[in-house]
Amino acid sequence: MKSLKDILYKVEISSVIGTTDLSINSVAFDSRKVKKQSLFVAVRGIQTDGHQYILQAIESGARVIIVEQEPVETHDGISYIIVKNSSKALAVIAANFHDNPSEKIKLIGVTGTNGKTTIVSLLYNLFKGMNKKVGMLSTINNKINKETIKSTYTTGDALQINHLLAEMVNQECVCCFMEVSSHAIDQNRVAVLAFDVMIFTNISHDHLDYHSTFNEYINVKKIVFDNLKSDAIALVNNDDKHAKDILKDTKAKTQTFSLRSMSNFKCKILENQFDGMLLNINNYDLWTRLIGEFNAYNVLAVYAVGRLLNCEEEKLLEGISLLDSAEGRFQSVKNKEGITAIVDYAHTPDALQNVLSTINKIRSGNENLITVIGCGGDRDKRKRPKMAAIASNLSTKVIITSDNPRSEDPEKIITEMMSNLDPIQKKKCLEILDRKQAIKTACMLAEENDIILIAGKGHEKYQEIKGVKYPFDDMLEIKQSLNLI
């Protein structure tokens, strides 16, 4: 049980109806999760408004209701706390309810369009490999030491984040590595977390179904840097042209990393092959199993965090050299005919361009490059023709297929992807609606030493069609089609 007054500490309260001299045993913003003696926060979401479920919350046992407007009807024995912004209030309440765990652990956040999952996964595995107790909050899954907890979103809600951080503190984790999405920043899910280091990877066209403009997307990313404390570190990719905008109003100490410009942490690619890269980082040569320039940035960011957290240089370099890529991030397999298949999460124009450019730099040019690509439904439609154009420009053959169509007609998505292609680009493309069949066809078309890229879904183990998630695993499908299992 927690004192309501303690839970409301630092919440911006407009007015109170009822008493605050109460004890609370749980907090919820989903009325279905309310228990006896709960505090219910009515949050205005994108699809639903929590204010519509206040009565349901009270019937389920809520004693305190956080609202943005004074209720027309009140109920005996119920306290109403009126706030200006209930999502911000939820962030503060969640932290207070769990005794502000982010202040008791080294919290390293990663934000940007691409690289978040890879950097967080590499950091977790690196520190775990150095026998440190650490946690991870990511798209793929959440981890507390060696325990794995399934994740639903890139960044969880404020209650989930603080609950998991509190568990990490209880299990004596020294660090938590966390993906921070633009949605989470905009919805105040990370508003009061005490980040020690925040990494900015890059920013490019993404989530414009949610953010109305690219400038809005940048400004949302900037918020988390504006909120950093003066003793925190802002670690940014100095090669990204928006890095200066991101740092403009931060109070944090600034550190930079880059491949092309002057920075605190510098990297040069010496060799780039399908089995790894030889890098020179701050005058040290390092072999990594990861592939491609975009991964050179990821490895460099990991090295920078290690040094900023006072890791010994030799152990840090050795640890990085043993790391594998995150699941579904440029994961490759090869069959006995020499056909190489790569599964990657690339679902933005920038990410797809990076992956295909990397493959083209490494391959000899005598092989065919067959790309299987789709676009998700209920997401930014403006990137669909761009994705198809990039795939056709940089591939020998392209198979346009379904990704996660969600509530949309998959045929319509494919038509929109093909809409701006010229005759030469269209000649390279096949349209195969069924993703399983598309992958099989790519394998049938592939000859000795050819390369297949399956892009868009990466680590996902499902395909969402008309609101239903069906089991589907790109890596499993490609292994079956290439007779590897």
Descriptive report:
The protein is of the alpha/beta class and 485 residues long. The chain has 16 helices and 26 strands. The strands form 5 sheets. Strands 11-10-9-12-8-13-14-15-16-17-18 form an 11-stranded mixed β-sheet, sandwiched between helices. Helix 11 packs parallel to helix 12 (384-394), helix 12 packs across helix 13 (410-418) and helix 15 (435-445) runs parallel beside helix 16. The longest helix is centred in the middle third of the chain and has 16 residues, at 293-308. 49% of the residues are buried. The model has no long low-confidence stretch (mean pLDDT 94).
Proportion of helical residues: 25-40%
* N-end to C-end Cα span: 52 Å
Radius of gyration based on Cα positions: 24 Å
Morphology call: globular
Low-confidence stretches: none
How many distinct beta strands?
26
Q: Find the structural class using helix and strand composition.
A: alpha/beta
Helices and strands in order, then pairings?
Blueprint: E1 2-3, H1 4-7, E2 13-17, E3 23-24, E4 26-28, E5 38-41, H2 54-59, E6 62-67, E7 79-83, H3 86-97, E8 106-111, H4 116-129, E9 134-137, E10 141-144, E11 147-150, H5 158-170, E12 175-179, H6 182-186, E13 197-200, H7 214-226, E14 233-237, H8 243-247, E15 253-258, E16 265-273, E17 276-281, E18 284-288, H9 293-308, H10 313-321, E19 331-334, E20 340-344, H11 349-362, E21 369-373, H12 384-394, E22 397-400, H13 410-418, H14 423-427, E23 429-431, H15 435-445, E24 451-455, E25 462-465, E26 468-471, H16 474-481
Parallel strand pairs: 4-5, 5-6, 6-7, 8-12, 8-13, 9-12, 13-14, 14-15, 15-16, 20-24, 21-22, 21-24, 22-23
Antiparallel strand pairs: 1-3, 2-7, 9-10, 10-11, 16-17, 17-18, 19-20, 25-26
